[in-house]
Amino acid sequence: MHSAIQQIHQSRRDFLATMANGIGGLAVASLLRDDGVLAQEATRDPANPLAPRRPHFAPKAKACICIYLEGAPSQIDLFDPKPRLNALHGQPLPESLWRNVRFAFTQPATARILGCPRVFHKHGQCGMDLSDLLPNLATCADDICWIRSMHTEAFNHHPGQLFMNTGLPTFGRPTMGAWLNYGLGSESRSLPGYVVLTAGRGTSGGASNWSSGFLPSHYAGVLFRNQGEPVLNLNNPAGLSGEMQRRTIETIGNLNRLRHQEIGDPEINSRIAAYELAFRMQAAAPELIDLSGETRQTLDMYGIDRPEPSGGGRGGGAGVFRQFATNCLLARRLVERGVRFVNLYHASWDHHSNLTPELTFNCQMADQPVAALLKDLKRRGLLDSTLVLWLSEFGRTPLGENRGGNPNATGRDHHPFAFTIWMAGGGVNAGHIHGASDELGWGIARDPVHINDFHATLLHLFGLDHLRLTYRYQGRDFRLTDVAGRVVRGLMA
Amino acid sequence: MRRLGLWLGCWLSGLPVVAAEPANIDPRKLPAATPGTIDFARDIEPIFAKNCYSCHGPEKQRGGVRLDDAAAALKGGNSGTIIVPGKAAASRLLIVVAGLDRDLVMPPKEKMPLTAAEVGRLRAWIEQGAKWPRQAGGTTSAAKSAHWAFQPIRRVEPTVVKRQGWIRNDIDRFILARLESEKIAPSAEADRVTLIRRLSLDLLGLPPTPAEVDVFVRDSRPDAYGRLVERLLSAPHYGERWARHWLDLARYADSDGYEQDRPRPYHWRYRDWVIQAINRDLPFDQFTIEQLAGDLLPNATLAQKTATGFHRNTLTNREGGTDKEQFRVEACVDRVNTTAKVWLGLTLGCAQCHDHKYDPFSQREYYQFFAFFNPDNEVDVPAPLPGDAAARAAFDKRKAALERKLTDYQETQLGPTLAMFVRGLEAEDRKKLPDKIAKLLGKGDKLNAKERQLVFDYLGKDDKTYKQLSKALADHVKKPPTPAYVPTLAANGGRKTHVLIRGDFLRPGVAAAPGVPAVLPPLKSRGQPGRLDLARWVVSTENPLTARVITNWVWHHYFGRGLVATLEDFGAQGERPSHPELLDHLASQFMQCGWSLKRLHRYIVTSATYRQSSRVRPELAGRDPMNILLARQNRIRFEAEILRDNALAVSGLLVGKVGGPSVKPPQPAGISELTYANAARWVESKGEDRYRRGMYTWFQRTSPHPLLTMFDAPDANLSCVRRDRTNTPLQALTLLNDATFVECAQALAKRIMTDKTGSVSERLDHGFRLCVGRHPSAAEQEQLQTMYDEVLALAQANPKEAARLAGAASPANVPVAEGAAWVTVARMLMNLDEFVTRE
Question: Which residues pair with B18 in a beta bridge?
Fold first, then answer.
């Protein structure tokens, strides 16, 4: 960058950094705006917008691995046992509960309570009840902060996913990962700061689940691919050798520098930097996915080569066991390499019917690798600084779904009023069970946690004040937590 | 912005999925009524004046509530009545000031709550009939605002400047006046090569050919520049270039969005309407009216209804289990917000759930605006395409042929049996037949065609050939060619509009009649105004916003920044114009010249301001680092579509066909698989459709073509008035390695080798010129030569790999190593910063 321009940016950065706190901040910002001077991101180095930035206060977490189970697993069959449901199996729900409530498919007036066939045991010192579908995760019970009192305001998948990822059920907002990269920058010199890995089929939210919304697109998630090259267009064209590529990148740099001497646009320096990073990424990404350096013990711990049961139903197609397990291992490798936010997606948890066989299949797929990830991070000393999340857009209803009046319910409809998510590592209150749902698992009995609260807490773990992490767009300072959110102290160590 | 309201602390009362029922409110907790007779002036008005009037008085009516006027107060607010005379427990006013509803407490928490004694007085007053001894004296103060954007557009004469010789038109006077006041000299005019490339890219989105560059550089006529501008403005690609800009505003896409994201086979007809409208310079006021209310124009033509497809680009959620009304309302919300954003530069959407925090728009006014769109239904108007008749004819012909075959078979093979049955069937045998058939046979020869068919179907039920023939016919009839249509709107007078409390469609408040915000000039109409009246109001000359917003938007495409930098927000939170007089000058000129976009374009691009060099001036880095004063031009990276268009153009692959259905050029595997249940399989187009301009690439909302998203094309979920211009390593990888660009590199290499048969340096010069328009400098030529020599040596060392790289595009008489070296060089050229930048 031209040194004079750099100075400007530097002094502007310093100036605003000094003024940002305290009373002067607002006045200065509006002064600049009145002058038409304050641009988006004026305080950032345009050649490297992802340069690491200091948080507001000392962080606990530095990286996040977000495991997203799209479709919404049944908390009743996994995390939140409701023995009363078995006693009431086949009974209608009291009208006071379903009156004025909208469902996606269930007809509440004739719906009947659906008992749960699972066996639950208490695990760890915290005594968390987990069903027999999660034997491996059960051994990590004391590393996890369980939230049984989540609730959301959206009850269809795509809006629900937007809500969980962006804090609002509408389009156009940045996701958690985008906010974190905006707030903290990226520690990786050769990989993107926000990486998305998927296993199985697509999610209903598609790319909007890792969008940067109104933030510039360099904060968006980069989808790594599970077939072929890990990053789109990573490989050189057929026949073009690494040496030719090196000569190409060099010449592009040289010619761009000559142009810069002529025309002086600092954007040219950004482009030179981008090409150099691209070149480094061409080496780093294959190294990332090359698992030959991992021990057999590690590979087996994640269950990479486990046999996969046949007939997985809607679980995502053949090979999903290997894909999901590999993604869990890659998540650790990404975090080791400085990636800020790793998002793992698996779609197929929308069990309106065939709940028992399909949930069993999915848990067989997810339980071992997720537990392995927690243990692997822990033994490497990474769990303390890595926040691991298990999320879904909502939960599932205690009622059997009787879509179209069908009385033989084998599944559960969407349920936004009370569901379970969990967090581990990264400064959370490990071995804590937060909140409770009521006797039927219908509503929340204690300590409700809204998505905006969850996001406020997440940012807090990263040393960010959710009220101060803002981005000016359409004349307003926007936040991940919109106009709400409170940090839930009980979730933090 | 918020549909679902604030966090309410409790699942029971807070969730919008639970309809509005004031839960948990116990009126028994109200403080006791003060004994004795209450006097309004003595006991009540002071409470209102101290605590309420600042938000619910003559100036403001937050939530639609006004307490200084008896009639208004008794009418209530957005949620309904607030005072029920004689009934304390039913009076919402009392509930909220007593703090009994935790969703809403008044006065708001930053103010002091009312004392129990005050609430007791209010209770007594209501129980005694809420008597108001007099009407409030004053009327509501007319909404006024000193904010610049709401003031009428003024015609300002430019001030006198010193450097007269620099001036080419009045734009320059405004720009220069400001520069001179800052004692800054403007930049010199850019050289001619830069000018023709700049103009071609800005007006067509395509690069000039070296021949075009040569002609312009050599054209010594004084009006050479003006001639060039005219040539470009009349090219059909001009319409494409500016249509694509407009489509960003229109959030145009080829699929529904959301989970199912189904294809929209005919929305391209709206896109083509835009291209044609811009090419024939449809005046912008008419352009607006047809898009907002073309369907309501007297004797609306199909083209006008097609234009109204603007507001059919909203998303459609076909996910199972959705509430249709919810997403109908959401589409309508988007129509309101988009209209306000695109034409008025307003963030009206902020008032969907509550009064606007910064600008003078109440929530009720939001729903008055909403009421223009709320009655609309989405309709698809049959609109045959040229091929449709032929397809129908072919279908009918085949149907007739199948019918004939069947009839022939019936008559020849089954006819005799039928005749036998009719003539004489023993009673015994007749009993074996189904009743219906027996009955029909009893009618003898008097069977009609349908009855005959039924009998034949019965007789032929075990006849293999007959079954085959009937199935062929039945299958064919099931798949008639779908008639083409255009998506548009149609007003449905029946639907009433209400304020939606906190934006929640399940919580209707008071009724809202169509109207425009009071701070803006009134909308005049006979009777209740409709969407057509709104459209006309938007482009009325009294409207202070539309002309400013649109000229500013056009300006930003030429300078990379608007005179108002916040294109989407002309409200109090937006930036002020850097050159307010110039903005008004442009806006008033625009209206005066019949809202002609072409004249506006011509006006801007012929100014000396536009024609300046974009060379950064270090001496101004401290004073005007963002070049707000425009002492030079700005360099602007191409948009996603234009990047690919340019690569196709310089390599000679581009197919310049204008309009038609969207196409699916190659994209990497695994993209459309991201969509839900792999719903949108990408079937690659064949032939010339692989090389069409980027604006014709099928836009699948949940899995857009990666070339588009990689370079900041908007996602088409919301209207986008300003694209980002990021600069990322992934973009570098795309330009280097994406199959499309590699194919372009191979084609460009071939073109270089075919066009120029002389020396390597001549070919290097040619390739460089094709890509950036100008000749390389000596230093650049040296870089090119060195790279060429080195990659040639590398290619020669590995002929097998070189052959793969050179590809089939390599001319037959050229050694593969040379071909490979040229592909490598061509690829490098298309990755230069200058290649992707309009200077």
Answer: A101
> Given a cut of 80, is residue B441 above it in pLDDT?
no
Burial B55-73 (b: 16+ CB within 10 A, else e): bbbeebbbbbbbbbbbebb
Name the amino acid, one letter, at A252. I
CA distances from residue B572 to B150, B361, B568 in whole angstroms, order as listed: 10, 12, 12
R_g of chain A, CA atoms, integer Å: 24
Residues 203-222 of A with CB under 8 A from B: 203-208, 211, 216-218, 222
b/e per residue A232-255 (b: at least 16 CB within 10 A): bbbbbbebbbeebbebbbbbbbbb
Q: Which residue has the higher pLDDT, B668 or B414?
A: B668
β partners of residue A145: A423, A432
Q: Are B11 and A247 within 8 A, CB to CB? A: no
Q: What is the dihedral of CA A425, A429, A430, A434, to 10 degrees?
A: -120
Q: Tell me the CA distances in angstroms from B282 to B236, B286, B594, one per residue in order.
A: 14, 7, 10
**Does B319 contact A251 at a Cβ distance shorter than 8 Å?**
no
Q: What is the mean pLDDT of chain B?
A: 89
Residue B6 has pLDDT above 50, yes or no: no
Element (H, E) at A29: helix A24-34
Question: What residue segments make up the domains of chain B, in order of their start?
Answer: 11-127, 189-234, 386-478, 639-710, 739-838
DSSP for B288-348, please give it: HHHHHHGGGSTT--HHHHHHGGGGG-S-----TT--HHHHHHHHHHHHHHHHHHHHH---G
pLDDT over threshold 60, residue B5:
no
Query: What does the pLDDT read at residue B133?
Result: 67
- Write out chain B residues lying below 8 Å of A207, CB-based: 674, 702-704, 709, 715
Q: What is the pLDDT of residues A318-334, one digit of tens each?
A: 788 999 999 999 999 99
Residue B529: strand, helix, or coil:
coil
In angstroms, the CA B216 to CA B208 distance is: 10
Q: What is the pLDDT of residue B444?
A: 67
**Residue B620 at interface with chain A, using a CB cutoff of 8 Å:** no
Rounded to whole angstroms, the Cα distance separating B754 from B819 reads 11
* CB A186, CB A413: distance < 8 Å: no
- With tokens 């003078």, the residue in question is B360
The amino acid at residue A483 is V
Q: Reduce the DSSP state of residue A43 to 3 states and report it.
A: coil
What is the residue-wise DSSP string for B738-778? -HHHHHHHHHHHHHHHHH--S-HHHHHHHHHHHHHSSPPPH
The DSSP 8-state label assigned to residue A244 in this structure reads H
The segment(s) of chain A belonging to CATH 3.40.720.10 are: 63-232+295-491
Q: Is A421 helix (H, G, I), strand (E, B) or coil?
A: strand
> For A63-232+295-491, which CATH class?
alpha beta
The residue of B728, B734, B800 whose CB has the most chain A CBs within 10 angstroms, and thus the best one to mutate to test that interface, is B728
Alpha carbons A130 and A150: distance in angstroms, whole number:
17
Q: Which of A470, A481, A490, A482 is nearest to A56 (CA)?
A: A470
Q: Could you give the CA distance from residue B518 to residue B143 in angstroms, rounded to a whole number?
A: 6
Q: Per the structure block, which two tokens stand in for B90? A: 């039913």
Contact A231 B730 (CB under 8 A): yes
Handedness of CA B613, B614, B618, B624 (dihedral sign): positive
Chain B, 419 to 478: residues with Cβ < 8 Å from chain A are none
- pLDDT value for B676: 67
Distance in Å, alpha carbon of A112 to nearest chain B alpha carbon: 19
Whole-model pTM: value is 0.79
Q: How many CB atoms lie within 10 A of CB A109?
A: 11
If one counts every other C-beta atom within 10 angstroms of the C-beta of residue B782, the result is: 14
Q: What is the ipTM of this complex?
A: 0.83
Residue A262 has pLDDT above 90, yes or no: yes
Give me the residues of A, 386-445, that contact B with CB < 8 A.
413-414, 416-418, 443-444
